[in-house]
Amino acid sequence: MSHTDTQFDNVTVIKQANVYHDGKVTSRVVKFADGSQKTLGIMLPGEYTFGTEAAELMEITAGSLDVQLPGSDSWQRVEGGQSFDVPANASFNLKVYSLVDYCCSYFG
What are the UniProt keywords, alphabetically (predicted)? Predict the structure, then answer.
């Protein structure tokens, strides 16, 4: 799946960074007028496991990684311009190969 939006208008950005995995993954929260929010972030090369509370859409805007989604033994390559969905209350694994720029949207 590809994504063509390049900017968000009329939003609030939280200055405090979310920092994970010893600083190798960071993000900032973007809040929209309708109450929804997204995070914009960067991941450095490495292997990571993340958990979800809400369902997520991870849009990769640059870089490449492999993702192992919940319930799967296989890995799927995702590159800039592609995305993947993660269900709520789940865990997923990433192998990041180059600096990854991402946008994460939350549902539910």
Answer: Glycosyltransferase, Transferase
